[in-house]
Amino acid sequence: VMKVYSEEVYRNNQKYGFVFVHRDITKEYEVDEMKSEFVSTVSHELRTPLASVLGFTELMINKELKPERQKKYLTTIYQEAKRLTSLINDFLDVQRMEAGKQTYEKKYEDVLPIIKEVIQSHQVHASSHTVDLVTKVDHTVVLGDRDKLIQVFNNLISNAVKYSPDGGRVTILVYKQERNLCIDIKDEGIGIPKDSINQLFTKFYRVDNSDMRKIGGTGLGLAIVKEIVKAHDGDITVQSEVKKGSTFTVTLPLAEQLLKEEIIEVDGD
Ligand code: ADP
Q: Which pTM was predicted?
């Protein structure tokens, strides 16, 4: 995007000519686009769960309801309120990431129970999908921030469920590769076009697919996931085929190796 300025040039108080300045404002233009995209995403994403909280509470206030109906509505209200919390946390996370103020409290953590916990919480809500866990390794301890690792698997498993049809199968494969622990999150969903793969981890990016526009989201999840994985000296990659499915692979350095390196360093002293 180019912006052209023209200015009159004077010499000895006499009009002498014009100068045209062409300035490339692509960057400013993109930032503006992103800001308005952000505002519309945020308002839309916050409005949807809020509308259901308001709608259901209003119903409960104004109507005599049977206990089972009450429980059903309360469950919806609870889930939508939780969604609001997680949306707001995502916005805050992105802001902290950008300010370089995200903090990590790392301890030796076993990843396997963390993954199991996340799967369990999903099975409660997404009972229409099957989530399988396959483990091909005994030691799954890494040096990491538990809550942040939960966020990583939570986001990836939610996406696998969200972007595949009801009844879809999600497979989580845990294995070792050299000094790393690898976790594949594989779905048989809508897949990702090749030319979108590079932008997936950019904040606010969502694949522009008319089917997909019906699926809510902010485009922040994967940007947050990438940042967290990087902060753990790990990596995330994706392989995907449209209409076949996607596999996201998280790689994290195994703690055994970290421990060994520390011992070697101590020995060398
Ligand atoms: P959100 O899901 O809120 O839009 P994410 O950052 O988690 O944001 O993902 C960015 C985009 O990547 C999504 O909008 C979607 O287009 C695509 N995507 C992510 N995970 C998958 C998946 N498992 N299958 C297909 N597309 C995916």
A: 0.80
Residue 191 falls in which region: left (phi positive, over 0), alpha (psi -120 to 50) or beta: left
ipTM of the complex: 0.99
Model pLDDT, residue 269: 47
Side chain identity at 236, as an amino acid letter? I
Residues 6+ apart with CB under 8 A from 133: 115, 116, 119, 172, 174
Atom nearest to 155 CA in ligand 1? 7
Higher model confidence: residue 118 or residue 121?
118
Q: How far is CA 66 from CA 70, 71, 75, 77, 80, in A?
A: 6, 9, 14, 17, 21
Ligand 1 closest atom vs CA 160: 23
Ligand 1 pocket, residue 190 CB under 6 Å? yes
Atom 7 in ligand 1: residue holding the nearest Cα: 221
Q: What pLDDT is attached to residue 176?
A: 96
Hey, what's the torsion of the CAs at 252, 204, 146, 181, to 10 degrees?
A: -10
Please tell me whether residue 4 adopts helix, strand or coil conformation: strand
Is 70 exceeded by the pLDDT of residue 164? yes
- How high is the mean pLDDT of the chain? 88
Measured by CA distance, the residue closest to atom 16 of ligand 1 is 207
Bridge-based pairing of strands 107-110 and 245-253 is unpaired
| Two tokens, residue 12 | 């000895």
174 lines ligand 1 (CB under 6 A): no
Q: How far is 213 from 84, CA to CA, in rounded Å?
A: 19
Which mutation among 40, 159, 244 tests ligand 1's pocket best, with the greatest number of atoms within 8 A of CB? 159
Maximum separation of any 2 CA atoms in the chain, in Å: 90
* Atom 23 (ligand 1) nearest CA: 160
